[in-house]
């Protein structure tokens, strides 16, 4: 079983491999494949529910996804994304909501942002709730950014991100996700921190990598960011299987004798 301490100890020794999952079946496949961290991402809003942003997903929905993923995990560390507005309004609410994720089987939570969250992160960690940070293109701030743009491009924002990463570390985060930032900046943050960095669109120098499972499987076809590599093309295969089933039912080929009871 992968633990928070194991993840911390992997820095500079072994790359940390992470993927998202939102349901039992996929989580079981990831777990059996030895993935280190399964993130129950709020990207479920886009990938699972077809929303344009991650903002609409609720605590109730994220708790359901987390519960079914955690049920499948015998090996992988399950981390749950705290949805928009579940941790920003008050510290008490953040503690209560984060605790609910642990009650359904997550081993820690992920929050987006840094400075305004420092007291909350410190409190969560103090209360025994491991926290993963998330900097760079934090999708819950898409409207502030004006789209899903590369972050940390100019010196000022790069310096701010380095400062934020150090803040997350000193607040007690066990790892930090760096999303869609230049490789050189991710390299610098990775070398400045003692906790692992997990990159998504942040180049090869991070301590680990994360991608959305449906992207690498070629299941989510609506768009393909540059940082996504497709390791399979499942959408056309599924379409083909469904078309063949439809054709066979229409023509009376299925069910045949072999798939019927005497
Ligand atoms: O919601 C998500 O899937 C994420 C990622 C880092 C992949 O936050």
Automatic annotation (TrEMBL):
Main location: cytoplasm
Assigned keywords, A-Z: Cytoplasm, Magnesium, Metal-binding, Methyltransferase, Pantothenate biosynthesis, Transferase
Annotated positions binding Mg(2+): 42, 81, 112
Catalytic activity, EC: 2.1.2.11
Residues of the active site: 179 (proton acceptor)
Localization, UniProt: Cytoplasm
Reactions the enzyme catalyzes: (6R)-5,10-methylene-5,6,7,8-tetrahydrofolate + 3-methyl-2-oxobutanoate + H2O = 2-dehydropantoate + (6S)-5,6,7,8-tetrahydrofolate
GO molecular function, one term: methyltransferase activity
InterPro entries referenced in this protein's UniProt entry, alphabetically: Pantoate_hydroxy_MeTrfase (IPR003700), Pyrv/PenolPyrv_kinase-like_dom (IPR015813), Pyrv_kinase-like_dom_sf (IPR040442)
GO CC terms, sorted: cytoplasm
Cofactor: Mg(2+)
Gene3D superfamilies: Phosphoenolpyruvate-binding domains (3.20.20.60)
GO biological processes: methylation; pantothenate biosynthetic process
Comment on bound cofactor: Binds 1 Mg(2+) ion per subunit.
Record pathway: Cofactor biosynthesis; (R)-pantothenate biosynthesis; (R)-pantoate from 3-methyl-2-oxobutanoate: step 1/2
Binding locations of 3-methyl-2-oxobutanoate: 42-43, 81, 110
PANTHER family: 3-METHYL-2-OXOBUTANOATE HYDROXYMETHYLTRANSFERASE
Assembly, per entry: Homodecamer; pentamer of dimers.
Function: Catalyzes the reversible reaction in which hydroxymethyl group from 5,10-methylenetetrahydrofolate is transferred onto alpha-ketoisovalerate to form ketopantoate.
Protein family per UniProt: Belongs to the PanB family.
Record-given protein name: 3-methyl-2-oxobutanoate hydroxymethyltransferase
Organism field: candidate division WOR-3 bacterium 4484_100
């Amino acid at each position: 079983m992968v633990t928070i301490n194991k993840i911390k100890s992997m820095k500079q020794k072994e790359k940390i491999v992470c993927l998202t999952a939102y349901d039992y079946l996929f989580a079981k496949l990831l777990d059996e494949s030895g993935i280190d961290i399964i993130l129950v991402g709020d990207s479920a809003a886009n990938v699972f529910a077809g929303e344009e942003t991650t903002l609409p997903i609720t605590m109730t929905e994220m708790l359901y996804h987390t519960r079914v993923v955690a049920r499948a995990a015998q090996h992988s560390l399950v981390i749950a994304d705290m949805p928009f507005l579940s941790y920003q309004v008050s510290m008490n609410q953040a503690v209560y909501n984060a605790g609910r994720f642990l009650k359904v089987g997550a081993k820690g939570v992920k929050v987006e942002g840094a400075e305004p969250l420092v007291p909350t992160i410190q409190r969560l960690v103090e209360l025994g709730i491991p926290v993963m940070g998330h900097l760079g293109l934090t999708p819950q701030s898409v409207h502030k950014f004006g789209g899903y743009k590369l972050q940390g491009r100019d010196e000022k924002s790069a310096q701010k991100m380095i400062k934020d990463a150090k803040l997350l570390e000193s607040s007690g985060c066990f790892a930090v996700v760096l999303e869609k930032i230049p490789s050189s900046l991710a390299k610098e943050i990775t070398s400045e921190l003692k906790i692992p960095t997990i990159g998504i669109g942040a180049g090869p120098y991070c301590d680990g990598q994360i991608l959305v499972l449906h992207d690498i499987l070629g299941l989510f076809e609506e768009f393909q960011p540059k940082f996504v590599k497709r390791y399979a093309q499942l959408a056309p295969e599924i379409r083909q299987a469904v078309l063949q089933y439809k054709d066979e039912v229409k023509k009376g080929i299925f069910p045949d004798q072999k798939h019927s009871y005497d």
